[in-house]
Amino acid sequence: MAYSAGTKQLLIDIHVHGAEKYDTQTRRQDDILRIADIHGQRGTDMILPTIYPGPVETMRESMGAIRRAMSSQRGGATILGVHLEGPFLNPERAGTLDRKSFLDPSTRHLSALIEGFEDIIRIITIAPELPGALKLIEICREKGFLVHLGHSDATFEQAEEGKRAGATGITHLFNAMRGFHHREPGLAGFGLMDDDLYVEVIADMAHLHVQSLKMVLEMKSPERILLVSDSVMGPGWGKGPIRGPGGMLQGSGITLLDCVKNLVTLGVHQEWALSFASDNPKRYLGIEDI
């Protein structure tokens, strides 16, 4: 089955770290604008630039660059705000992120990070099993942020506690989290089985085995799947996954439309594949009809 261009739908990518040689860890608004331009040229209509964990001041500089880019943007994929992927994450599930920059969940650390940027933060990823994390999830929800569970070693019960505290989604399902086990389903199992939580899915054919991808599509409500690129800068961008030392996956090197096409190739009806990248994130973020 092949993807065919038809009625235009807004494609909204809520997890974008970069493109080509440009990265969200920057103090330059032009870098953010180039990321938006590159993704926009390849079919994405709206993006949430996603910031890696780092020193608080570095993360704040990146948010400042994103805010300036939002106010000066004249084209490309519309910048909707910020997704903070950390820094309240579990070092045991760091993946390629800088675990040395992770912080213990505390109101002091949260305030230092977000003060003055509350209006542009849309999503924050937190590991729910960390001491103090549940309180932080509650505070973030009170401030209007959507909270994702991710980079986490949470058990099924700890994931459930995260949801009760206010979490609404899971960052890149199966990646950087406790794997499914028949005696301990973990965060991945909770994400598959819970009827309410949205789950990010990276369909670059590398972050998830094809059969794992098909399992998610069969088990999860189609209205709760959020297709994301998790695109990062790197050599070979635009051709496939970006890998670091030892071949570890750092992120994808493709766009949201590429992910849609990959699902269609697997036999997913094009209308459904598009809804994962359009209707679902639109509903999730509360975006009004345009």
Strand content: 15-25%
Identify low-pLDDT runs. none
The biggest sheet, with number of strands, parallel, antiparallel or mixed sense and barrel status, is:
9 strands, parallel
Q: Can you tell me the overall shape?
A: globular
Count of β-strands:
13
Q: Helix and strand string, N-terminal first?
A: EEEHEHEEHEHEHEHEHEEEHHH
Mean pLDDT: 95
Q: How large is the count of helical segments?
A: 10
Q: Taking Cα atoms only, what radius of gyration do you get, to the nearest Å?
A: 17 Å
User: Helicity level, as a percent range?
Assistant: 25-40%
First-to-last CA distance: 30 Å
Concise overview:
This protein is α/β, with parallel strands linked by helices. It contains 10 helices and 13 strands.
What does this structure look like?
Helix 2 (56-72) runs parallel beside helix 3. The model has no long low-confidence stretch (mean pLDDT 95). With 290 residues, this protein is an alpha/beta fold. It is globular. The strands form 3 sheets. Strands 1, 4, 5, 6, 7, 8, 9, 10 and 11 form a 9-stranded parallel β-sheet that branches. It starts with 11 loop residues before the first strand and ends in a 5-residue tail after the last helix. Helix 2 (56-72) links the parallel strand 4 (46-51) and strand 5. The longest helix is centred in the N-terminal third of the chain and has 17 residues, at 56-72. The protein is built from 10 helices and 13 strands.
